[in-house]
Every structure is written in C-alpha cells, then in structure tokens.
Amino acid sequence: MSATTLVGRPAIPVAPSVAEARAATRRVARTFAIACRLLPRQVRDDVYLLYLVFRTLDDLVDDCRPEAADRVDAATAWAHGRRAARTPEIALLESLSARHPIPRSAFADFCAGMRQDIARATFASEQDLDRYCYRVAGTVGVVMTAILGARDPARATPAAAALGMAMQRTNILRDIDEDAARGRVYLARETIARHGSPTPGRRAELLREQIARADVLYDRGLAGVPELRQGRRAIAAAGAMYREILREIERGGYGAEPGRPAVSRPRKLAVAAWAAGRA
Questions:
Q1: Do 103 and 71 meet the contact criterion of CB atoms below 8 Å apart?
Q2: Domain spanning 15-278: which CATH class is it, in words?
Q3: pLDDT exceeds cutoff 60 at 6
Q4: Which of 81, 159, 179, 240 has a beta carbon 3.0–4.6 Å from 275's, enabling a disulfide?
Q5: How confident is the model at residue 9 (pLDDT cuts 50, 70, 90)?
Q6: How far apart are CA 129 and CA 242, in angstroms?
Q7: Spatial distance between the Cα atoms of 162 and 166, rounded to a whole number of angstroms
Q8: Please, what is the Cα angle at 226 between 224 and 231, to 5 degrees?
Q9: Residue 120: is its pLDDT beyond 90?
Q10: Which residues make Cβ contacts (< 8 Å) with residue 262, sequence separation at least 6?
C-alpha cells in the first residue's frame, strides 16, 4: 500500500488498486479467490477491495504489527462516523460506501473483534466464542451482503452472519496446532474443561462436538443464499469449500495426528462446482 508525498505536506494514503486487491486475495485466501471467480463482473472488483480491508486489518493484528492498534482505531472512528486518520483502509471504505450501503455498525463490531485479538482475549463459554466469531467473521458476511444485495434483508443478513461464524469456527478447528504453537487458544474454556486439552490423538470428542456446532451454522448460513440478489453461486461455493475442511478433519481421524488439515485443490473445485450448480 503506497502513499504520495508532497513537499511540505503529510503523506496522503492512496487506496490500493483492484489489481493489488485481487493479487492479495489470490495469495492469502486461495479458497475465497476460487469463489470470487463466480461473482458477477459488476460486483467482483468491489468484493476484492472489501476483502482487502478486512484482511489487512486482520493481518496487522495477527502479526502484532506496531501500527495495528492505530489502524484499527481509525477504522473504528470511521465506523462511528467520526473523523478518522487517512489510512489506506479508510480510503477504500469511503470509496466503497459511495457505491454501496455499507453497514457501519457491523464494521464497528468487526473492529471490536480486532481489539479482542490485540488484547489476546480468551473465551469462557461457547456464547463468548460465538460473540467473537460474529465480530471477526459474521460481520464480514453482513457487509458482503450489503454489496451483493438481498431480496429480504431480514432473512439474508442473519444467514450471512451465521455463514461467517461457521467459517471462523472452521478456522479455529483447522488451526488448533498452529495457534497452540503461538500460545493462542480460541476454544472456550468450558469446552476444554469438559473434554480435556485438545492434544493430538486425544481430541476426537471435542472435535465432534465443535464440528456439529459449525455444521448447524453452515446449514443456517447456506439456507440464506437464495435471498441474495447477486453472487449466489459464489457464496454457495465458498461456504461448501470451507465446510469441506470439517469433512477433511473427520476423514483424518478427528485430529489423530498433529497438523493443519487441508482440502486438495481438485476436491475444492469439485465441491465448488457442485455447490454452484445447486445454487
């Protein structure tokens, strides 16, 4: 992300281009990039740009970058309608909000989730974890719905939030070992107390329970796809590909071996084609 500097004036952030956003998506979110190819041309570029806003803030926080808190604070100020520092994210959000009814309250909730990550928050209960999953991922679905449009927002918006939450819970289960190596635990303490520490070979029951919770959210989220005005095939494909990670965990013996379960590209493409066809 670049900035233009004029003599005697502060640097003015320049919003990343669509090409930069598209390249970033393909580099760090290969599954989502596959789904984006199914989006209608008239909204595809804006989806890339929106995803880059969320992904940039998330990566800054995850990487513990020194500027992370200030960038999240700027995004929070924008979400609440206050004067915000001119970061690249703000430049993109202002551009997107000129074309779409971006729900700022959802973006404020996303920023609250980022602050939880900065504080390395833990979760006592499944309800606490659900709240976090809504903030960091359910909100992405809500904002995405504003870009794609909805026939019945009262039905589409809660479904979009549920799909995002399902994906976040999938991330948590997929990354248990990687997160543990970084000193992070995203599972609820009450769940660990009930099933024991999720070490390889000893977490089958915990994973079965957590997969069932995620599957309920996927059912709820994918049921709302027909309410979208545009992008139904893309969102159905994205949800199905991500859900397949849960099936990969099951095929791998529910964490019998350490590591990050991964769905092969041919399998992803087959699942995406099936889901898009049904949508």
A1: no
A2: mainly alpha
A3: no
A4: 240
A5: very low
A6: 19
A7: 6
A8: 105
A9: yes
A10: 245, 248
C-alpha to C-alpha distance for 166 and 21, rounded to whole angstroms = 24
Find the length of the chain.
279
Q: Are 92 and 53 in contact (CB under 8 A)?
A: yes
Instruction: Write out the two tokens for 5.
Output: 């500097």
Residue 201's pLDDT band, with cuts at 50, 70 and 90, is: confident
